Hints:
This protein has one domain (about 5-95): P-loop containing nucleotide triphosphate hydrolases (Rossmann fold, 3-Layer(aba) Sandwich). The protein is α+β, with helices and mostly antiparallel strands. The mean pLDDT is about 80. The chain has 3 helices and 5 strands; from the N terminus they run ββαβαββα. It has a 3-stranded mixed beta sheet with strand order 3-5-4, covered by helices on one side. Strands 1-2 form a two-stranded antiparallel sheet.
Amino acid sequence: MSKAIGSIPTLTASSIPSAFTSSFLFFTGKGGVGKTSIASATAVSLAEQGRRVLLVSTDPASNLEETLGVTLGLHPVSVPAVPGLKALNINPDQAAGD
């Protein structure tokens, strides 16, 4: 990791081990462990480095809108505060019925 804020390392594209470099990153785990926080921080960091990033939540009770401060739907929405970052919510129950 290239730099740290306090004791928390800052994620950069070059700090991701090459074995894990991919076009897709998935953050999974039990409820309340920080998936949205880590995914959002990663998305912002990569977008700030010039990457085009699409952040997708499949949580029916997503709080991604509150995290990013934008209204989300079924289509990607630009996050004005972070050029290069778009986000959307997909409700898996609704998507399975479509």
